[in-house]
Amino acid sequence: MRVGIGYDIHRLVEGRPLILGGVPVAYEKGLLGHSDADVLVHAVCDALLGAAGLGDIGMHFPDSDPQYKDISSLKLLSKTCRMVTAKGFRIVNLDCILFAEAPKLGAHRHEMQATIAKAMNIKPEEVNIKATTTEGLGMIGKGEGIGAMCVALIE
Ligand SMILES: [Zn+2]
Asked: Which of 43, 42, 14 is nearest to 30 (CA)?
C-alpha cells in the first residue's frame, strides 16, 4: 500500500468557465490556467503520481506545452491512471477536499465523484469529495481562487 497527497490552487477570473471535478459549474467566474484549470482533478493527479513515486503533474504535463492548452484535465487524469497502473498499482480510493467560498458545491458532489471515477475507470464509491469554505479568511475566503486537496491510496 502506498499513499500520496496532492494540493492545487487556481485564481478565479471573469470570462472563463468553471470546471471542477470534470463538471461545468454555473458561476460568474472561472479558474485561470493553461488547461481547463480543473483544480480538483489536478490535485487528484498529483496525489496519484505521488503515491506511485512518479513525481508531479508539472513534470508530466508542463504548462509550457501547447498540446495541453485548454485541454480537459480529465484527459490528464486518465493518462495519469495509465501511468500508475503500468507500474503495477491498483487504485484503492481517493479522498478530496475543495476549498471555495462560492459557489456552493454540495449539489455537484455526486456528479464530480461519478465523473472522476469514470475517467479513472474505478467505482464512484472509491472517490469521496468534500467541500468547505475558509470562513471568509485568506485569498480563498475573499473569492480570489479555489483550492483542492486529495489523498490517494494505491496498492
Ligand atoms: Zn492546477
From this structure: 14
